[in-house]
């Protein structure tokens, strides 16, 4: 894209991260990307930890000992939260990006409605399911297999 | 006198309801290379728009203030600006509806600033042009030497009609989080227009738009944040257009897209008789 020679006014990361005064889907957009990055970071760490087994049983046991702490257990639960949101919101995005739940194009008559509003019940539904998944997982984390 | 005229322009009453502070971002490449914020007190009457407020400032307080406008009725799409951190048309926004004592005005983000509140929309127009936003026919005899109208059913028209209401104001581009980080991303407006022509039964130019509209900076970079549709002042719903274009591309990749039945050209009318009493067309003024 050629430069115009005028003053740059690109929002950059601020525009990417900030939901501003827009609707809930804009916040879901930001959270989806952040949780995606968090899951990716966890995945890389997971590979790194798993690969320590190649360095012998002693190294493996020492790494496992270090990870067996409340910080990592609670951290793991945060990853679980990120997964629950990312997976279910991803399902919503897969459906809407294929045109489902958006309705057909129509003549814009004031007050305008939009496909974003029409798919909002789906958004609410997947968030309720995500909350149920989090509650069930939380029970397992904190009560069925509590952190020692 | 000037003040009175300015209030009358708004179509509202003469009674000043309250004074609102307009906090305006100022920038001038020649005299003010670093942007600053200037504040102006504007007496607000019922029905006064942000555009009227800017006129008041220009006529009474600071004649050097620059912004772009034309129609004053939400048709031309010139006066888009960032009003209280939300992209809006200044002519469509009444000050009292903002329910605030300070109106913060900045030029539309994601566009370079020419001066004060004037954004450089040429990037938008270049991207718009890049998707060939017009009817393309491979048959040269139809494309270059049109002999008549195309046949089109109401159903075929309704598939794209909503997207034709775009006034190219750039609000959707200012609201889009992907445009904020990727200057090469086409953005909601051009992508919606690409879809609008792709599904037009008169058009045969999908293949020519494919590289731009579905390339690495095309529709699949949209992740449905939905802000574009929220801010659109004409109800065009760009997010819908982009998602439908993704669906179309996905179905096409599976080889399941039905072959387009191109609209035929209507033959010239030969047999119809002219109704009695129909006046003659006026003489041509341009030859």
Summarize the structure.
With 148 residues, chain A is mainly alpha-helical. Chain A has helices spanning 12-17, 24-51, 57-67, 70-97, 115-118, 120-144. A 5-stranded mixed sheet of chain B has the order 2-1-5-3-4. A two-stranded antiparallel ribbon of chain B has the order 6-7.
Features:
heterodimer; A: mainly alpha; 3 helical TM bundles of succinate and fumarate reductases; 6 helices; extended; B: alpha+beta; Ubiquitin-like (UB roll); Fumarate Reductase Iron-sulfur Protein, Chain B, domain 2; 2 domains; 5-stranded mixed beta sheet; two-stranded antiparallel ribbon; 11 helices; 7 strands; globular
Helix content of chain A: 55-70%
Counting DSSP H or I runs of 4 or more residues, the number of helices of chain B is: 11
Order of helices and strands of chain A: HHHHHH
Task: Give the structural class of chain A.
Answer: mainly alpha
CATH architecture of chain A: Up-down Bundle
Mean pLDDT score of chain B: 93
Largest interface: A-B, 42 and 55 residues
* N- and C-termini, Cα separation of chain A: 56 Å
Per the principal axes of the C-alpha atoms, what is the gross shape of chain A? extended
Which spans of chain B have pLDDT < 50 for at least 5 consecutive residues? Answer: none
CATH architecture group name of the largest domain in chain B: Orthogonal Bundle
Description:
The complex is a heterodimer of chains A (148) and B (287). Chain A has one domain: Up-down Bundle (3 helical TM bundles of succinate and fumarate reductases). Helix content of chain A is 69%, strand content 0%. Chain A is built from six helices and no strands. In chain A, helix 2 packs across helix 4 and helix 4 runs antiparallel to helix 6. The mean pLDDT of chain A is 92. Chain B is of the alpha+beta class and 287 residues long. Chain B folds into two domains: 2-115, Roll (Ubiquitin-like (UB roll)); 122-253, Alpha-helical ferredoxin (Fumarate Reductase Iron-sulfur Protein, Chain B, domain 2). Chain B has helices at 2-9, 50-60, 122-130, 140-143, 154-158, 171-175, 177-181, 188-198, 206-214, 227-231, 238-253; strands at residues 16-28, 32-45, 80-83, 86-89, 102-106, 113-115, 118-119. In chain B, the strands form two sheets. Chain B has a five-stranded mixed sheet with strand order 2-1-5-3-4. In chain B, 43% of the residues are buried. The model of chain B has no long low-confidence stretch (mean pLDDT 93). At the A-B interface, helix 1, helix 2 and helix 4 of A face helix 7, helix 10 and helix 11 of B.
